[in-house]
Amino acid sequence: MENFKQNFMDFSNNINPLGLSENIKRDISENVGLCEHYPIKEHEKVINIISEFENVPKDNIITGNGSSELIFRIVNCLKPKKALLVSPSASDYEKALDANGCAISYHRLLEKNQFTLDETIIFQLTPNIDICFICNPNNPTGQRAPKQLLLRIAKQCKENNIFLVVDEGFMDFVEQNELYTIKDILSDYPNVLLIKALSKTYAMCGIRFGYGLCYSNDIIFKLKKSSPRFTVSTLACVAVNSAFKEKDYMKNARLLIRQEYEFLREGLENLGFVVFPSKANFILFKSNQINIADKLKEKGFLIRRCEDFRGLGNTYFRIAIKDRESNKKLLEAISQVI
User: Tens digits of per-residue pLDDT, 244-257?
Assistant: First the structure.
């Protein structure tokens, strides 16, 4: 069956605008024969590659079938009674917690502050909280939290015996991301799990691969014990191996995203929309026309409605940043439907 989205120009899926690299396509094609075998050796190679790439010991790495699977697995393992979530943010955290009957409190991000996470969250990190999830940069707002704030949050969580999950799934799109990731403080905070994925960064959503970094041997042991032996396929391992060999792919993607972000931001603002700052590969904007997504769909364009994000409503929309030609076509279509 033909994929529904193939008939549209899809701005709803916030993946790397460069698409799946030719090197990854080639390596997958050339290694299809490996599917006859369990991914034992290939998985060992991936662990070694991640260890070298992230400068983290192999024993502190957990892999999974995308970041979503790791999120559900950590909740299943820890079985928290009370959680703190940022709102608006990615929905998988809430879904995983709801599935385990966990009570949830919310830290509301304010539109007047452009949905920026600030130090007021510290006051909600009390001893009755068992787990906290933070997406950085946040989805769907695109805002990046200051590293010093994340350090304060990690410290507060450690003091109050709260497990902190920081999702850096979009961090690789951030320029000079080494200045903002909390990877370098993990050894001092065994109560923190850092999650990353290649789904969006390398346009590998259908391949499914995510990994976590944590310096708690107990947590890593529980995560591995709670999982089937093979959660990562052989071809996913091949794709990951190939992705980490790419030298200029992410560098070129970041350059393109910064250029096209400014182009789209200016274009949307000129059309009368409220555009929120973003450090990721997507843009959140506000429209007084709640049916804009339907009108664009009629013209062959898909954008992300954000009414299902807690804290937002039917006037908010998210678009992925693509190449100049595609972005021009989207702005032209929007100008026609409004």
Answer: 999 899 999 999 99
